[in-house]
Amino acid sequence: MELGERLKDLRLRRGFTQEQAGQILGVSAQAVSKWERGLTLPDVLMMPRIAVLYRISLDELYDMDAYYSRKHNEEYNERLRQAKQEGDPDRVFRLIADEIELRPDSFGEYLHLADYALKHGMTAKPYMEQLILFAARAERWCREEKLRHAIFRRMVKLCSSAEDPDICAHTKEYYEKLPYFRNIRETVTQYVLDGDELTQEENRNILYMLQSAADLIRARMYRRNGSAEENLRYLRMSSQILEAVTEEKFTGFYEIPLLLDYYSMAKLYTELQEPENAALCIRRILAALQRQISPDSRKNPSEFAEESQPYGYKLYWASGLELLEQMERADEFAPFKEDIRKLYEEYRMYFYKEKK
């Protein structure tokens, strides 16, 4: 059955007139009539909407079982193999692009085309305009998040290498479509940022990965619900990872989990009757929080301490204030109660004054 006849059959099955179908699709009844008579074809971007309207898949709409037989796939792969063997990148690009036009929901081919263009440096404007069009379709219709992100990463690299300034301007657009603080964005950061911005972004990614590793260790500790000795072993592992952050002088948001580890370790050391180790953890907490209100910090405030963080986390100073409140109430910290109370008052007065 020809596509026009199939469109007519599907419309009649759903009980729509040409006017009703056109109104829902945002086209005229005349356009629907021309499709059904085979005079014109719907735009490729219209096909998913038609499939939704008639409640069928794109494969069913195109009658893929008949149209894309084993023979078709064999012929396509053979033509592609020959073009690659002959060293004709332009022909390979066009073959893959034509296949995408015929099968617009084959998003794996979108990635295939982007990879091929990247491998052969095909960043001239005609190639890039085609790739940008396909990336827009993938963003709108591809339901596989990982596949969309893979396409966007390739587009960052391709656009950043383009000589045409209008194409190059798309680089940051694709970069910003990638999730923040996940093992996705950092792989293409260098194509978008440079200088201090790149260093800062790399630092953030390193810190986030360290934080994630420490979180996994703590999650295992909570899940096993072991003895004090076992929990202390997990907390030591977690704190050693987070200490790598503070050694590089990065503080603020990423230091709070380390201070919470010290807090839990101090309580466990007290339980295990190791007061010297408990005292060492307490002093580390107080020293870190004191540093935030030191003269040097006032002159050069930490960017992490002064800004809010993603995913709804609190400001560093607000978390620090809560930690001091917990320490003041805990019996295990009684020998340091006076020091804790004093720092709490200084900390609260400084930050509340600064935030007014």
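(ticket continues) Second input and output from the same batch:
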Amino acid sequence: MSEYKRREFLKTTAGVAAGAALGGGTSLFAGEAAAQQWHGKPEKGAKLRVLRWKRFVQGDEDVWAANTAKFTKATGIEVRVDAEGWEDVRPKAAVAANVGSGPDIIISTMEDAHQYPEKLVDVGDLANYLGAKYGGWYPLAKDYGMHNGKWVAIMMGAAGNAIVYRGSAVKAAGFDTVPRDMAGFLKLCQALKAKGTPAGFALGNATGDSSWTHWLVWAHGGKLVDAKNNVVINSPETIASLEYAKQLYETFVPGTLSWLDPNNNKAFLDSQLFLTANGISVYYAAKTSKDPKLQEMAEDIQHAYFPLGLDGKARELNLVFPMMIFKYSKYPNAAKEYLRFMMEKEQYVPWQEASIGYVCHPLAAYEKSEFWTADPKKTPYRDCFKNGTPGGYAGTMGYASAASIADFIIPNMVAEAGSGAKTPKEAAERAQKRAERYYKV
């Protein structure tokens, strides 16, 4: 976090009392009473169409739909919500931006708002209202939501990423928990492999679950671009990360090179692997299953933060969800009202609880929700947005960074080197050339 962002974040959150509580009670958030009032007025006869990604946990879909129905009852505004896979929403959002027609609101992924900011409604008034009322936006929310100083998207949150593991397997391998250092983490995975309880991380073109590869490179000091957007992925730090990837890959269950987002969930629940990187959806599926074996597994499932980078800093990439209102919409005020309604605590907290924290919050006040600590297994997901690193690291977000992530440059590089398809040097050189096509000098 830059010093400027740190000062701004501290300033905007200074009014939030440390003991503010969400959920379960009737107390207001600290600062809520003093927050500016919202004066949005939806257009008469407004109807909205919303496109979002398909749920990974049932509670998300159920409560989002219930909140939408609640909004319609309160405002009379009819809302149609369509859901598509992550891989399908992004191209549909790009088409909508280019042709000037489509859903009023699209909830997409990563830095999509930075690809066509001129096609999006300025939502600064809404962002300022929510930030003032709910303890301020985390710096990462501003990174994704603001383009050239203007708010062009409201962050729904992010699908938090953490280490998911079977506690009994880790203990049998000789560890009490997942080590926070890179060397210790590798030793744990090697010990799990030796015990016949291997790890496995997605190495296919998985929109969410391949993001661990960014952590791997960043944790070793590598990065796709520098602060001036010069491509620097072919570096000694990256080579070191790929040498580490080779050793880590040797501990994986077979098949990870083709894994997409659902594969490690299925493999984990089928007891084919015992440690992976994923959202809380694996735990949710086991905990809510009627199968006694999966319910028993839920008791054994634990979560941990990713190991810290060699510089001692958290370096995770999480799948962020920007909510964008397009300028072609006939009802931009109604669209803002819908987003405001869904982000208010009366709707947002029950929605988070129903999905047991699958989406972590972008507003600081929500970290005080009691459900994050009532079940300690959820706690590592609470801080994903606060601790996250932006996808364009260490440069700026825009077309080039979005295209580089969408093209899976870093995941492919790690897969090639880890599996031995290419040497670390060859994989880094190829990644350099691929990235330079987007970051043109």
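Agent notes: Confidence is low (pLDDT under 50) at residues 1-28. The domain at 3-160+319-387 is CATH 3.40.190.10 (D-Maltodextrin-Binding Protein; domain 2). Closing as not reproducible unless the customer responds.
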